[in-house]
Design a protein that fits this description.
The protein has six helices and seven strands, in the order ββββααβββαααα. By secondary structure, it is of the alpha+beta class. The protein has a domain of 112 residues.
Length: 194
């Protein structure tokens, strides 16, 4: 438990402060409180880590702040549930939800009218939405880390023609990549130029 107080260097943060002894370590008040939470209520620590750093893989400088559960690999074959629904124009749509251990990890949507030229831009936007929602589902349920690069990759893959909405978003967001040359090269290998 905590006992004697001395003004020395904290084992946690390295600052000079009045210290409290905890299981052979000497902590300042702030580090002592953190250590106490880690020791007595690890669920609270996980919840706070989730709230302050959603990817749980560290700060901007690469330090690992909270240990995340390892992300699961998506198997080649998944069970899916298919739903039939109608839009406001009474077109029939089929929404398939792929599940892993009862949790949704991918979503697909299609219509019998996907050859209709009028629907092509809607289908491109639909593909964009379902790819991005699937990315979020894998993050939530499998622990997959979300990155701007992955987001751009999914946008690029959902583009059906030059200057459609996914293509425009890909080009604009690519400007925020730390190594834009690499992402452009990667995307050019896999499809039309951005």
């Amino acid at each position: 438990m905590m006992s004697s107080e001395n003004k020395e260097i904290c084992d946690g943060c390295g600052r000079s402060a009045l210290l409290q002894d905890m299981q052979g370590n000497e902590f300042c008040d702030s580090c002592g409180q953190i250590a106490q939470v880690i020791k007595t209520d690890p669920q609270l620590l996980r919840k706070i880590c989730t709230l302050i750093r959603s990817d749980l893989h560290g700060s901007e400088n690469g330090d690992q702040a909270c240990l995340a559960n390892p992300s699961m690999e998506l198997p080649e074959v998944l069970d899916a549930v298919r739903y039939r629904t109608r839009d406001r124009e009474l077109n029939t749509w089929y929404v398939s939800i792929s599940e892993l251990k009862g949790n949704p990890v991918e979503i697909f949507a299609s219509t019998a009218f996907d050859r209709d030229h009028h629907l092509q831009s809607r289908i491109s936007n639909l593909t964009t939405i379902t790819r991005l929602v699937s990315l979020v589902l894998r993050h939530v349920f499998l622990g997959e880390v979300l990155t701007l690069e992955k987001t751009i990759k999914q946008l690029h893959r959902s583009s059906r023609q030059k200057n459609d909405l996914p293509d425009m978003l890909t080009r604009v967001l690519s400007r925020y990549i730390k190594n834009p040359k690499k992402i452009v090269e990667d995307l050019e290998e896999k499809g039309p130029s951005i």
